[in-house]
Specification:
This protein is of the alpha/beta class. The protein is built from nine helices and eight strands. The protein has helices at residues 21-36, 50-57, 86-91, 102-105, 111-123, 142-154, 186-204, 224-231, 245-278, and strands spanning 9-13, 43-47, 66-69, 94-99, 127-132, 166-170, 213-215, 235-236. Strand 2, helix 2 and strand 3 (66-69) form a beta-alpha-beta unit. The longest helix is centred in the C-terminal third of the chain and has 34 residues, at 245-278. It is globular. The structure holds 2-phosphoglycolic acid (PGA). 2-phosphoglycolic acid binds next to loops.
Length: 279
């Protein structure tokens, strides 16, 4: 599968934290240090509040851990008080921007607004991380349609050729911010990853396989290994686990060991095939 060929991508969503720039710098430098042990195995991007992107970008060691935005306006400029455009985010040093996070959808962002934002982020030369996910699961499987519709509508303003500039972040709302840290099971995640890839293939053909799907919702050092190994995704979008460099390092370590296991598994297959042939 896809993830065997690409480095896993881990995008840390800092949300509305930390309170000060000093804390943000300390956290960022801590994450760069933590990532240095895994830099050949993992691609890591952190998404701080917008006002911290430029100062963190100027810390020079930025290349090792990328920066991203948590949101961007679909307006480009003008009399739009309080808005921050995608180009502004980009020129501050962001290489990607999260769009359509459920916490923004809860504030009233519609699929139509999200589609405009995805288009603007892509137009500005960044990758758009389009967040989708159902609020709850039902036995009849209506949640699958919810996710499909969010993807369809979220991609409505970009061309098929631009779809590879989008990463789908599957973040079921019921799994985000859980105090018991219980995420989705790797089995259910795998089913959803297959469903999303199938739908993307319907839209763009075989290239749909090349679109990265990452998972977010109570990812922790404890569950990241299983979710990566068996969940069929190409990375994660952790929120709270990205706020403390030590915890974030735990996620890196869990994914790195999953990659090793996956490599072992792929090496084992030809040996079995050989043995069968000998018999
Ligand atoms: P969480 O947040 O990891 O704290 O659940 C994930 C997210 O909201 O992106």
């Amino acid at each position: 599968m896809m993830k065997k060929f690409l480095k896993p991508l881990i995008v840390g969503n800092w949300k509305l934290t930390p309170s000060t720039l000093d804390e943000a710098k300390q956290r960022y430098l801590g994450i760069i240090k933590a990532h240095s042990k895994y830099k050949s195995a993992l691609e890591v991007v952190v998404c701080p509040p917008a006002s911290f992107i430029a100062p963190l970008n100027s810390l020079k060691r930025v290349k090792l851990v990328g920066l991203g935005g948590q949101n961007a306006s679909f307006w480009t400029e003008g009399s739009k008080t309080g808005e921050i455009s995608a180009m502004m985010i980009k020129t501050c040093g962001a290489r990607l921007t999260i769009v359509g996070h459920s916490e923004r959808r809860a504030l009233g962002e519609t699929d139509e607004v999200i589609a405009e934002k995805v288009a603007e982020v892509v137009k500005c030369g960044m990758t758009a991380v389009l967040c989708v996910g159902e609020s709850e699961r039902d036995e009849e499987g209506a949640y699958l349609e919810v996710v499909k519709t969010q993807i369809k509508k979220g991609l409505a303003r970009i061309s098929k050729q631009e779809i590879h500039k989008v990463i789908i972040a599957y973040e079921p709302v019921w799994a985000i911010g859980r105090t018991d840290n219980v995420a989705i099971t790797s089995h259910d995640l795998h089913q959803m990853a297959i469903f999303i890839h199938k739908y993307l293939k319907e839209i763009v053909g075989i290239a749909g396989d090349l679109i990265r799907i990452i998972y977010g919702g109570s990812v922790t050092p404890e569950n990241a290994n299983d979710l990566y190994l068996n969940g069929g995704v190409s990375g994660f979008l952790p929120g709270r686990s990205s706020w403390d460099p030590k915890t974030f390092e735990g996620v890196f370590s869990a994914v790195a060991s999953a990659i090793k296991d996956l490599k072992k598994q792929t090496k084992k297959v030809p040996a079995k095939v050989k043995n069968k042939k000998r018999k």
